[in-house]
Amino acid sequence: MIEFTSTPIMLTLILGAVGVLIPVINVARKEKGSSVYGVIALGALLAAIGFVVYQILTKHVTPSAIFSSNVLVDDTFGSFFAIAMLIVGIMTTVGSFNYMRGRANPAVYYSLILLSSIGMILIAYSTDLVMLFIAWELMSIPTYVLAGYLKKDPSSNEAAIKYFLFGALSSGIIIYGISIAYGLTGSTNIEQVIVGFSKLGPDMMPLAILAVGMFIAGFGFKIGLVPFHMWLPDAYEGSPPTIAALLAAGTKKAGFAAVLRVIIMGAIALNLHWAFALAVIAIVTMTVGNLAAIKQRNLTRMLAYSSIGQAGYILIGLSVAPISPIGIQASLFHILNHSVMKAAAFIAVAGIVTTLGVTHIEKIKGLGKRMPITALGLTISLLALAGVPPLNGFWSKLMLFGSAIDAGHTLSWAPYLAVAGVLNSALSLAYYGWIIRKMYFEEGESNKRLKEPKSVIAVMIFSIIFIVGIGVYPDPVIEFAKSAVPIMSGLPSIH
User: Fold this and answer.
1) Angle between helical axes of 454-472 and 372-386 (0-180°, round to 10)
2) Residue range 181-194, pLDDT digits in tens
3) Backbone angles phi, psi at 189, to 5 degrees
4) What is the CA radius of gyration of the chain?
């Protein structure tokens, strides 16, 4: 039986109906303007996030199966990610209003954003590997098109091709992992697969480890974990900056939802000392991302490498999850924070591209005087990404590093995760500070005040309120993240 009033089904119906309707309206309309399609898409996203919030506030979100075969579940974990990804969708859509003005095929553009958002959301609610893979492809395929949206731009075409090729490879690896899991357990239901893994004999254990490894590699491509990150900087740089925001802040987080649903629980069920492997990946990922970012001179490319580094921070909480009770909670908190911080940074770049047509860091000298609101929004988001108090990024990083220290009584290497995190945060502050110095402390070719895109101003104002507001009063979001964690309980630990 299908529960049509359940959160994931309603979100799919709202976003799917409008996503299909927008191209139909485009065919019927005689006047071809981009604004109307953006407004329609925004309305659908606002309705969707409003429904999620209503379900949570009225306590209609319960860990219950939606289909009798239990392929989707309506729980707080899924709703947490749904809110994060819908916020990103809203920021991307609003930030695109001015960017898309005068560009071709706006109806297709906004429709694909909605369809990709459906995939992201369904990943978070999936409890079956086949359903998760279908949602994964529903998320990925529209973004392949969006990455190459600027058809006349060679770098955009290159971005789309690289993104598609590596995306296809990651999908193939995930399918391989699913086939192994099904062969070992006779089921694709995630819970049953986990139980099956925990009952395997020693002779079958290597295959189960291989399956988990395939999931790590497959999801790792989308997340940008080292060494699966090689496609990411080129894809983000060549994509429209608004779509780079969707990729870095949206699809990346959907990848973490899949990681939490599948890899973490599966690895715990195998009773492996897998935490050390994740810790190594976390340290390498954050270090490689930040070291590469500090050498960049293109703003978009620098933010792309920064996204790789941020994935490493999130992994800190996941790697100590069985030991530290706040590990996953801290990761969820940082996932939500990063969604807004990174989306704001890329939307600010979209505003700079729309107004000045540049992304080279040397070209943004004096931006604080020329585009003050955009510069302020970018500055606040960069400082939050670095973890500067009292912004929201400080609290989520503090929780992440605290969870690593807390796990030190059992895992002797865990405190080194906190040390690596602090050192990498200091390194990131160096290149973020370089950008801020260019905007405020170096003179540009002109100090003339420019007209900033209104849609970008709206996103910047929202971002500043969110980042500062959560920084000043983080408790509600921390509690919300905590409420999404219990689905991970009841599994054997690595003690």
Assistant:
1) 40
2) 999 988 888 888 88
3) -70, 130
4) 21
Q: Give the tens place of pLDDT for each residue, 345-386.
A: 999 999 999 888 888 888 899 899 999 999 999 999 999 999
Q: Tell the residue number behind the tokens 């994931």, with chain if given.
A: 8
Q: Measured between alpha carbons, how far is 375 from 352 in angstroms, rounded to an integer? A: 9
Encoded tokens for 409: 């009584």
Domain residue ranges of the chain, discontinuous segments joined by +: 1-167+190-195+223-265, 273-495
For residue 142, give the nearest of 172, 128, 173, 163 by alpha carbon: 163
In contact, 7 and 77? CB cutoff 8 Å: no
pLDDT, tens digit, 9 for 90 and up, residues 111-148: 999 999 999 999 999 888 999 999 999 999 999 999 88
Residues contacting 78, CB < 8 A, separation 6+: 7, 8, 121, 124, 125, 257
- C-alpha to C-alpha distance for 94 and 88, rounded to whole angstroms: 10
pTM attached to this predicted model: 0.92
| 77 phi-psi bin (left φ>0, alpha ψ -120 to 50, beta other) | alpha
Residue 225: name the closest of 272, 181, 146, 166 by CA: 166
- Helix, strand, coil content of the chain in percent (nearest 5): 75, 0, 20
Which token pair is 170?
A: 């990651």
Task: Find out whether 327 and 403 touch, Cβ atoms under 8 Å.
Answer: yes
25, 99, 214, 443 from 29: Cα distances, Å: 6, 21, 47, 47
